[in-house]
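User: Fold this, then the next.

Assistant: Folding the first:
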Amino acid sequence: MSDFISDLEWRGLLADCTDLDGLRKRLATGSPLTVYCGFDPTGDSLHVGHLMGQLTLARFQRAGHHVIALAGGATGMVGDPSGRSAERNLLTREQLAHNIACIKAQLSRLLDFTAAANPARLVDNADWIAPFSFLEFLRDVGKHFTLNVMLAKDSVKSRMEGDGGISYTEFSYQLLQAYDFFHLKKTFGCELQIGGSDQWGNLTAGTDLIRKKLGHEATAWGWTFPLITKSDGTKFGKTASGAVWLDSQKTSPYRLYQFFVNTEDAKVCEYLRKFTFLSRAEIEPLEAAHAANPGAREAHRALAREVTTLVHGADALAGALKASEILFGGSLDGVTEAIFNDVVGEVPTKDLERAKLDGPGASIVDLIVLAGLENSKGAARKALEAGGVYLNNVRIPDHTRAVTSADLLFGKYLLLRKGKKSYAVLTVK
């Protein structure tokens, strides 16, 4: 168990712990620990920023511990002020129930809910918080907290210092999360809550409540992992087109793969440690190879392969790799329309009237100009004569080549390429 903690530290997964020495001693007993992490179901998909919590839970489960994923059906209706500058929109119970069902499917990729010895649990805090009356909550929970302590929490102070302030609703969030920890301690013997470093105030509220209600000898720890940021300090998991989701319908496996394969050089080794289950013996050679030749991108590809497989499975990884090969001149044999559609979104696309492909077909020279790969027919002919033009990743040696409906991919696409990297797609209408 000491090796387990050391591995988490080596991976950079420890920002703070309420009593690390005490936790080490507890783990040294060899008895499995029960640990939980909460996920507020404010949407019907988690995003890559949530992977830290899921993966850390999964590491505990793989080490033989009991893990609980808590879906905040109750706290999700209130909204956590941590890391936010404005109050979130409140969701209905029906919206939350739908979101929780969707999220469980994503959690099942990383957590084993059917393990014989230590199956993961998914719980909804609405089950025990919803029946609580306001007066009961004030009496049984609220009386254990002073305003001085609550106001000192960073998540509260930062909001109070902002223009919008903080509502009593969000101010109460730390009490609800504290009660979650107490309930799980009492019901399942849960001793450890994990979360991002912005959750420190909420975690310590939980350990305080447990000791006040159960006595100072009660064991309870809070463990935070660092929030992941880019090198410039901006939020991890955002792209120009928005968040990178774990739902394949929102962010395809190909786009997830591309997100991680394009990780900035300065962060790729850190992400290998934090976002994969590769061992130290597997990661350190990748780090050495990256230091020697970052341009080879060996570490980037390993990271993207591992994360895509964890989130979507081996078949989805194969599809993502196939899609990636298309933009490097790979064969289109066996490519599905879904995979090709992912690629279409990566390159300039122009419309083409289907009628132009009828009869003798359209001139390849005209299509090169239409696609914007060359500015004139003369330049297009020169590119063709030089052997630098490809239709559907097959070289076109003849500038007199006619393009017909028989050349269409999936009955509606033409993929044109000039040189190694200039791509365009024509979509027939």
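Now the next one, as you asked:
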Amino acid sequence: MVLFLTLLSLALMRINSFVHAQDSAEDFDPWTDFCRRFAHRTAVIDRRLYIDGGYVDYGGGVYPDTVNYTNSYLLYLDLEDIVDTFPVLYTNLSKPSEVPSVVGGTIWPDTVNKYLYLYGGEYNWTSTPPSRYTLWYYDVLYDTWDAKTGDSEILSPSFGAGVVTDDRAIAYYY
């Protein structure tokens, strides 16, 4: 009887693990289901903290079998709208599927013209980097995306750190 219960328990754990592995990021809500986000890129324009890409873990905690999903959303926290000592997270911004959701990299904010420029980052195993470098940018005021493609076959850099000097409109990436 003990052997039967042990085998049944192991079989149920295996089935549960298989079912969990079949979940996709689309099965979860980025606002209510997330546990943690990491390796993303952020920028602030007009008291809004924008979050793009990186990994997200869903569920009530982080466990050995936790799946790190790629965050495919452009999110923002309104730093003026505080509820229970934390800014409200909004998930209603557009992000077409052709805009890459990468891990690492940086977002350079243009606080004058209200643009976010996405630079660098590493593609995950489910997506292929473009053959030519593409600089994606997002218009904060109109919730629209556009891109400029380079003439050379230079690929986007992977991990690094970026900073912008607003007063001189210069961005650096290391």
